[in-house]
Protein: Aminotransferase class I/II-fold pyridoxal phosphate-dependent enzyme
Organism: Variimorphobacter saccharofermentans
Amino acid sequence: MKGIHGGDIYRNDVKADFSVNVNPLGIPEAVEAALYEAVEHCSQYPDISAEKLKKALSGMLNVPRENLLFGNGASELFMAIIHGIRPRKTVIPIPSFYGYEYAARAADGEIIYYETKEENDFCFQEDFFSVLTEDVDLLFLANPNNPTGNLMSRKELIKVLDHCRDKGIYVVLDECFIEFCDRECSMLQEINKYTNLILVRAFTKIFAIPGVRLGYLVCSNPLLPDEIGRQLPEWNLSGFAQAAGYECAMQATFVEKTVAYIEKEREFLEAGLKKAGCQVFPGKANFLLIYSKQPLYDKLLEKGILIRDCENFRGLSKGFYRIAVKCRKENEALLRAIGEIKWNGKVK
């Protein structure tokens, strides 16, 4: 059983990391420059209120500043949400990001898992609503989902949000990968309609800065941001995170360029993986979920290539892997490595 997260380059000899889903175009130049400049201010405390960053993001998203709350990555916000709401019963669709379960367990409440099925390409079915009953306090939902890459339509999401509002259920909607795909499916423009909606995003993936740790939530409920914020430590955002985040909020052109690039490379990688004999599940994010009967994780690691073994995701089993979409040269190298793997003395 491998680790619960990708990116373990510290205990493996890795030349190419396909286990983490960050922007293959790398850090925008302006963001990198801001990080270097922030070194000069390390002798000062960062702004405890992150006002400059908050103003910039408020303008970027066109939401009031009081609807925003920042965290040391989205993971810190998930934990703060749990401590702020203290749900007695939480629903988590699976397979999905382990961080939801990790946070939910901090409340000592009951966790209900709704399992999506492989035969339905891991998409929700009508029976999903049968678990969203009045005794449920909170639902974790991701769009697009990780690790499957499924993207729910606005119509589907609104149906879920309407149902949860009627049942008194808070919805934590993880949109950390939405900027890689069709953002028309984002619920950001519906944020004022649903006071039970807590939308969470991160700068981590789209701007390739996982080491900086910067996430944010958007919520129109007048009470929730303050209550959740009280669960966070003071100065939880470093000067580096605030400086980088401010510049990230100015990178609309970079994001548009990324969307087009990811779509092209995802299609290239999907075609190559299918040709190599892998089962590829339909996804719209910057990664692909695949299935292979061959031990791809171990064989590729021998070649210095790290992919995400998904055997330890609830709802998945041995043979499932998640592969990030990277630059063409790296994608070609991965496909070539898979093609060179030998089984029982024969080339696969």
